Amino acid sequence: MPSSYRRCLTLVIALIIGVGSPMLAQARPDLERKIGTTLVDSKSPDYQFSDLRFTSADGQRRYRVRIIKPRIAPPLGGYPVIYFLDGNAVLMELNAQLLAQLAVQKQPPVLVLLSYDNDLRIDSRGRSYDYTPASQQGSGKQPHGGADAFLKLIETQIKPAVAAQVTVNPQQQTLWGHSYGGLFVLHTLLTQPATFQNYIAVEPSLWWGKGFILQEAQRVMDRHPSLSAHLQLWIGGAEKMREAPPIIRQSQLPADAAHGLATRLATLDGLKVDYREWPGLDHGTMFGAAIPPALEGIAKGEAAGK
User: Fold this and answer.
1) Catalytic: which of 115, 179, 187, 205?
2) Ramachandran region of residue 140, left (φ > 0), alpha (ψ -120 to 50) or beta?
3) Residue 139's Cα: distance from chain center in Å?
4) Is 42 a catalytic residue?
5) What is the model's pTM?
6) 224 given a catalytic annotation
């Protein structure tokens, strides 16, 4: 077969199955992408960097936890602290200008980046397990169901280790997550609401496990508990959580599933819920877009627990 014909045939097949199309590129992030050089590789006049390492209880996953601490003295009561899931990917979005802006605010936060101990931007297998609740309806071929164990690791090992290095305010703690990370944020709020005071769920995977988190939320609301917390639910207006990526089979959710969840959760006593749509942003672009406003809100004292 002539090489020119093979190239044409390859192009036709690619077009048929959608390889290289914007939709598939968005749905399938480059899982081999490395973090490369980041701001922690150079000295910052505003923040200092340190690392901690942990291992999962079953010995299967290793974590690298980066602490990004303001150089100025802590405010009375300690620094507010934000825990970011997918820490390697978050690290790639940070820059010196953002840290400089945070440093001059009245409450510059400590950033704790929860990462896997490798140089991958996204550790698909690790997060598929750690960020998903235990459910018989788990989605995809990756192992799932480790959310409760991962939360226990955060509470019993990571938080105490961070507090031993940095003066943090235990009443100003935020958990931030995107996609599967957003699913973890919601599951934590619904099952262990006192773990953090502020929860930021960005494009949460509501479709996962055939709507598992929506069912879990309904079970919680049926009990009418009082939750002293603040939930910020942020989604991209370009998608409005209409469906999961096309490579994942699932039952389609209503276009307003996220808004409906926010409305229902807002009826719980003591739970403040802020819902926001970002016009023109899709699932992927919401990741980077949702980091600066989360940090700025904390630094300005707008987060719950102030």
Assistant:
1) 179
2) left
3) 18
4) no
5) 0.87
6) no
